[in-house]
Amino acid sequence: MAVPFAKSHFLWSFLSIFLHILAVFLLLLTTYVSAHTFSDIGSEDVDSSRRNDLYSEILRDEALARLNELGKVSDADGYLERTFMSAASLRAGNLIRCWMEDAGLTTWFDHMGNLHGRFEGMNRSAETLLIGSHLDTVVDAGIFDGSLGIISALSALKVLKSNGMLAKLKRPVEVIAFSDEEGVRFQSTFLGSAAIAGILPVSALQISDKSGVTVQDSLKENSLGITEESLLQLKYDSKSVWGYVEVHIEQGPLLEWVGFPLGVVKGIAGQTRLKVVVKGSQGHAGTVPMSLRQDPMAAAAELIVLLERLCKNPKDFLSYDDQCNDSTIESLSSSLVCTVGEISTWPSASNVIPGQVTFTVDIRAMDDMGREAVLYELSNQMYQICDRRSVSCIVESKHDAKAVVCDSELSSQLKFAANVALKRMTGEIQDEVPILMSGAGHDAMAMSHLSKVGMLFVRCRGGISHSPAEHVLDDDVWAAGLAIVAFLETHL
């Protein structure tokens, strides 16, 4: 039996070797055919490869170098801080102005300190495409918030200039670096974009910072003498604007979670900021019995816990009526966020029952009607708690902005551009670009009063922002720039 088994074993071994050789041959043949198929396309792919090399050099390498350079322009030592009309803000503006001119743009500063860079295109009387973001920062900021949107736009225009396509733009394109979005210095957001959109009241010129310097004074100190008349003249004619586009880091974790570098923004949450002042009876920590206290700190603590409970479970607090229906409750359940970010006490001593406690409330939601219902219920219950505790309560509105829905057509164009960019980078058709809501406020909120708006989000590590830990991958910076290039190519 040994001999037949040996023959059989030999035959199977021979067949196995033959099949292996055949598989290798077919693989080589496939590679050969594939290589010749690509070479048959000819110079077009060579040009495409060359363009991609150019794109990465400008849109990634140079853009990152500029972001890092801009990140060193700060009013503080050891961390990034750049506020409205500060010395660092002016230096940053002059630096960005050089980069605008490098991209072939005509530049100027307006009376609100906004920096503009414009290319007229083939038809200077056509409606203008505006692209922008803000050059100011929060205290102890990251280098991408705001700056990425400006640099990506300029890099994209420089690419068009480099490949000779800039002059073929069929409409004017204007990049705006807004002077103030964060509102750090004057506690008033969107000073720059609100002026362009025509929604900044003239009274804003008299808002003071902590040193008593007004907005108007700060502009005058920097040779930008603004008056009520010149403020009104800053407003763009809505008929002259085609649309506004903004690239911004997501400032949230969703894109990282789904593993996608870019996302299109469907809308921006409405926002209300409150200042709550609770006044009680100041006294000695050791001599006033607990039953006789009118303690504003304990009352404030209960108010803050109320806010958390209401915002976690709005359906348990809100009553259903014509204005608050199932869809409103559902929207609130998925988008409502509430924050107490600042709290102070007077006289703030460990052995003194406070006389006054002041704290801030930030409420955001996509449904404006639902947000108003939350505010109404919150105020009612706050006053009830204060009455029960025999303390006084003052709830003051400091800021209110309605939710913004991004233009569907513009969003579709940005989604297409993002797909084109990612296909150019990977050579493959990608999954569907995610559609996101923005809980953070952006200049697009103010610009929506002037024109249709669209936004493109860029993935950031851990969703971290407003922090030096803020980080965007190098290739994600490249993807953002490529998406703007692809978007601008639709305007050639």
From TrEMBL:
Listed CDD domains: M20_bAS
InterPro entries linked to this entry: Amidase_Cbmase, Bact_exopeptidase_dim_dom, Peptidase_M20, Peptidase_M20_dimer
Keywords for the protein's UniProt record, in alphabetical order: Hydrolase, Manganese, Metal-binding, Purine metabolism
Cofactor: Mn(2+)
The keyword Oxidoreductase is annotated on this UniProt entry: no
Signal sequence annotation: none
Pfam families for this protein: M20_dimer, Peptidase_M20
UniProt KW Ligase keyword: no
Domain called Peptidase M20 dimerisation: residue spans: 270-380
NCBIfam families assigned to the protein according to its UniProt record, in alphabetical order: hydantase
Record text on subunit structure and interactions: Homodimer.
Name of the protein this chain belongs to: Peptidase M20 dimerisation domain-containing protein
Organism: Hevea brasiliensis
